[in-house]
Each structure stands twice: as C-alpha cells, then as structure tokens.
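Subject: Protein entry, chain in single-letter code together with its fold tokens

Area: Proteins and the way their chains fold up in space.

Attached in line: The record itself begins immediately under this heading.
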Amino acid sequence: MDRPTELVPRQYVAIGGRGPEDVVADARGRVLTGVEDGRILRVDGLTESSVARVEVLAETGGRPLGLELLPDGDLLVCDAERGLLRVGLDDGVVRVLADSVAGERLRFCSNVVALSDGSVCFTVSSRRYPLHRWIGDIVEHTGTGRLLGLAPGSESPEVLLEGLQFANGLASSADESFLVVAETGARRLTRYWLTGPRAGHSEPFAENLPGMPDNLWRGTPDGPTWVALAGPRVPPLDLLHRAAPAVRRSAAHAAVRAPFRPTGTIGVLAVDDTGRVVHHLARRHSGFRMVTSVCETGGRLILGSMGERGVAVCEAPVPK
C-alpha cells in the first residue's frame, strides 16, 4: 500500500454528547449521529464558518451505533442494546425491526445497509462480548461476528454469513451485487456476494489493512466506500491471535479489566468496487482519537469517534 497522505484537520466541533460512533451525511449535507445516552442527533453547518447547529431527533433508549438513511426519510439504527431499529426523523418514533435471531437476543448490532429491493442487511460484532467489553472480542479473536439479512416485511432475520472477526462496517457495491463487511479483528474487508454464480459465498476483498476497519460509508453509487480505521496495526496483537484459544481467553480476561486509551494515530481509507485503495489518509499524534466512522460532505471529511465529545472536520482528498 502506498505511503499515506496527511489527514488535515480543520476544526473539532462539540455536539453536546459523547461518542458519535457513526456519522452519515444526508442529501442536504447535514450529519446524523448517535451518542452514548441514546440520542440521535442531526448536526448542520459543519462545513461552514458559523457555529454548527445540533438538533435532537429521537432517543432510542439504548446505545445507537451504525446508521443508514432510507429513501423515505426514516433512519435505520443498529442499537447495541435494543437490536435493529427504524426511527422516524419527523416524529421521533422508534420501532424495533428485529431484536433476536433464531431465539438468540441481538446484543451487539453494529452497522446496517438498506438495499433497493426493500431488504436490510446488518452486522453483529460479537455473540460473546457486549459493547462495553468490546476489547475482549478483539483480543480473544472469537470469530463470532455475523452478517444478517431481513427480508421486506419480515421480523425474523436470517444468518447470511458467520465466523467473522468482529463484524463491523457494511456497505454495498454500486450495482448491489455484493456487500463489503469490515472485519475489525482481522484487519480486512470481506466480500459477500448477493447475486451471480457466487451468490451466498464470501471471499477476501481487501486484506492486510494498515489499521482496524470500523464503520463503512458510501455517499453515492459512483463514489468510493470510505473506511474508518479505529486504530493502527498492533504487531503483538497479530502474534497473540496465532496463540492457543486458552491463551487468548486469558489475555481477553485481563484486557476487559484494564483501562483502555486509544493511540494518537488515526486514519481513513477509500476503496473502489474492485477493492483497490484510492485514498489513504493518516495522522500521527492526533488529539482526536479512535476514529470509528467517516463520511464526506461539502468538500470535507467528517470523522466520528466512540470516545470523543464531538466530531472532527478534515480536508477531503483531491479526487484521483
């Protein structure tokens, strides 16, 4: 992979809530996000010189993570505590679309994509660890992540793909022939075919990434898929992942009890539908840490984070 270009920050904007884990931009350039107290926020004016305006749209009653805007103006929300939700942005009404699969409670829904046929696909990061102990799954390398599908009108998701290493961000190809799933714990993107001769099968899409991929975002069908890198590669962790299961479990037991401080190295990627990296931006010694999401609007990149109390506004790269 080519040497990264500098990720240039323009401003940090407080939004009145902690942990804007996912950020998505609407057609008017406003950014939507969910924060740890359960509120769904809409932030306007991020790319302007004036003060950004924050509006509370709804409260999920849980912990919202991945978001997906629907053509009718509603919002799909992966809530780590309540499952897959649909939120009316005009009235704030929250409806549960799915909270279990095959009798098992969904406790760590992560990211979601709506397809043009009305179906919805979403990820579950771990079946063993809840959100507040997420690092345990990364360390133990459980491979219990899943990709689920929900048919139009159905209340029962089906398992499309399992055995994923902390399944996280999700995006579709321009023609919706496949999905791209971020496997945070494996530093890779995986392709799951929806149509064609390999429908129902998966394969590597982009491997050996320079960091741990988190949320994915695609603004337009002809644009790239943006990949947030939640942290840089950690060689000792790569080595641990090759150790015996008992060793990994013991290390995970210690990790969930130790204080976690993200590094100051942040980065984002953009990939095309062949898996080619078209942009790689990074910054060392950043004051804005653990970038878990990225979207593009108004000629700027907007970064979200699991731990920060606002978002970062950065320069977008020049199109290649």
